[in-house]
Write a structure and sequence with these properties.
The protein folds into 4 domains: about 170 residues, no CATH class; about 100 residues, no CATH class; about 90 residues, no CATH class; about 140 residues, no CATH class. With about 525 residues, the chain is mainly alpha-helical. A 3-stranded mixed beta sheet has the order 2-1-5, sandwiched between helices. It has a two-stranded antiparallel ribbon with strand order 3-4. It has a two-stranded antiparallel sheet with strand order 6-7. It contains 23 helices and 7 strands. A hairpin with a 5-residue loop joins strand 1 and strand 2.
Length: about 525
């Protein structure tokens, strides 16, 4: 507008025809362009309410674009031009589509997610029309209103086929956030639900989104892909569901899939996110602690797909705990031995196949797939390595051993906050005590070994790391600094020399063997 451009192109939008009237009007699903159209509607609503201070006719013209009044003589019902997600629709109607509502003072602190973003957009747009004196810039308001309504253009594509609309989206979408797998699967499956049930199943899906969160729902859908297909992905998640799950008859699209998704979402929320099982106190505590550790400290989450499939097929609480221990053992051994992500994923797919083919829990749990004893030598060699500290699994291994030391206390334990690995013998010692006890070769051999490492629950001043051992001990245990059983063990030592590290190294290897072999 400032550069005198005749038109401004807002990009392409993709519409799927839901209902079409003889006059060309109708009801459309907005497949691509949701953010831009919603932003444009909010801008128009703000300009409508500001214009009402100067020209009621202008304000009414804009309102007619946002809202169609009922006209019984013409056979027209009340109609809002844009319908957003059902859980946001009432808020959208009351605060944007209704006249005068954008002028209200909103408290952003009380809002979240989509409501927060809508009100933030209202606030930003209003500020653009207020000059330095706190008054409405009337000239800008009228010019912008005319320009937006007469010079801003969209190109649109209409199709009656949802699948074609999605394919067009992947080709034409060049701006804004891409649709996620859950977005695509939601529209695809709701389109397959009969009209009289669609609202019910839309609400079920939206409840899942609310309970899990969008990011976790995306993760769950990727796990379901693994459960159904059991091969490395070759196409997008949506395409694989469309072609290899729904088209092949593995599960029907629409109501059947949404029911399945809800069941798996319930399992995921209960067993993984909340780490809950109904069992004896001791089993519950051990399950909660191990699941919390695996969930939060194993970087890759692909093991969860096999775990969810086991929970879905076999709902025996005690056996779920046994299976979790088995899959943790196999996964950690593979991780420590340097299996690639692809190799680890292949093993997970084999476990899912095993679950599918088994008639009871014990057939799975006792299968040789979980036998790690044959790799004892190489596994312990990796744990014993001089560069253990530098491995991406070092913190998990230390935490798992610490958790095992805590199990006789029968209390839930979830590791939170900043957790660091501390070298007892410093990496770069400057104090004479350390230099006298460890020559250069000894420091090279023992500094980064597991026997020289402990866990701390907060970062310490790096200068303190080089202090003599007894002073370091005071910092470890002073001021309730540590809850780690692994670290508390150091209190029994009066000095830290090569013999101390060697003794602890042997003990840590014994513990690793007990846990994973």
């Amino acid at each position: 507008m400032e550069n005198g451009e005749q038109n401004y192109f807002l990009g392409s939008i993709i519409l799927r025809t839901v209902e079409k009237e003889a006059d060309g009007s109708g009801l459309y699903d907005l497949v691509d362009g949701q953010q831009r159209i919603t932003s444009l509607i909010i801008l128009l609503a703000v300009m409508r309410d500001l214009l009402n201070n100067f020209d009621r006719n202008y304000a009414e013209q804009i309102q007619s674009l946002l809202y169609q009044k009922a006209a019984p003589l013409l056979g027209k019902k009340e109609s809002f031009r844009l319908l957003v997600w059902e859980r946001e629709q009432d808020f959208f109607k009351e605060n944007i589509l209704q006249e005068g509502k954008t002028l209200h003072d909103f408290n952003l602190k009380t809002l979240k997610d989509a409501k927060y973003k809508m009100v933030l957009a209202i606030t930003i747009f209003k500020q653009k029309f207020i000059n330095d004196n706190g008054e409405i810039n009337k000239d800008l308001l009228f010019k912008m209103s005319y320009y937006v309504l007469n010079n801003c253009l969209f190109a649109y594509v209409k199709t009656g086929e949802l699948t074609l609309a999605f394919r067009l989206f992947t080709v034409l979408n060049t701006r804004g956030l891409p649709l996620t797998a859950s977005d695509l699967l939601k529209s695809y499956n709701l389109a397959a639900v009969p009209d009289d049930n669609r609202k019910k199943y839309a609400q079920i899906w939206e409840n899942i989104e609310d309970e899990l969160g969008k990011e976790e729902l995306e993760r769950l859908i990727s796990f379901l892909r693994d459960i159904f297909i059991r091969e490395k992905a070759k196409r997008t998640i949506f395409e694989e569901f469309e072609e290899r799950v729904f088209a092949s008859g593995v599960i029907s699209k629409g109501e059947a899939f949404i029911k399945y998704l809800k069941n798996m979402a319930d399992i995921y929320r209960e067993r993984v996110q909340n780490a809950q099982i109904s069992s004896t106190s001791n089993v519950y505590v051990r399950y909660y602690n191990l699941m919390s550790l695996m969930r939060d400290f194993i970087p890759s989450k692909d093991w969860m797909s096999a775990f969810l499939r086991f929970c879905e097929k076999f709902n025996n609480e005690n056996k779920i705990m046994e299976f979790l221990q088995k899959i943790e053992k196999r996964y950690i051994v593979d991780w420590v031995l340097g299996f690639t992500p692809t190799q680890r994923l292949t093993i997970i797919y084999n476990i899912i196949r095993l679950i599918n083919e088994s008639t009871c829990e014990d057939e799975v749990i006792n299968n040789s797939l979980f036998d790690t004893s044959a790799r004892e030598k190489e596994f312990l060699s990796a744990i014993d390595s001089v560069d253990f500290y530098d491995k991406n699994y070092s913190k998990y291994v230390l935490l798992r051993i610490d958790l095992d030391l805590s199990e006789n206390q029968n209390i839930t334990k979830a590791y939170k906050g900043t957790i660091t690995i501390e070298h007892i013998l410093p990496r770069n010692p400057s104090h004479n005590e350390w230099l006298d006890l460890f020559d250069k070769q000894a420091r090279s051999e023992w500094t980064n070994k597991i026997g020289n490492l402990i866990l701390l629950s907060r970062r310490k001043n790096s200068s303190a790391n080089n202090r003599p051992f007894l002073e370091k001990k005071k910092s470890y245990f002073g001021g309730s600094m540590t809850d780690f059983e692994l670290t508390k063990e150091i209190d029994k030592y009066n000095k830290w020399d090569i013999q101390s590290i060697q003794d602890r190294q042997r003990e840590m290897l014994r513990r690793a063997k007990k846990l994973w072999l």
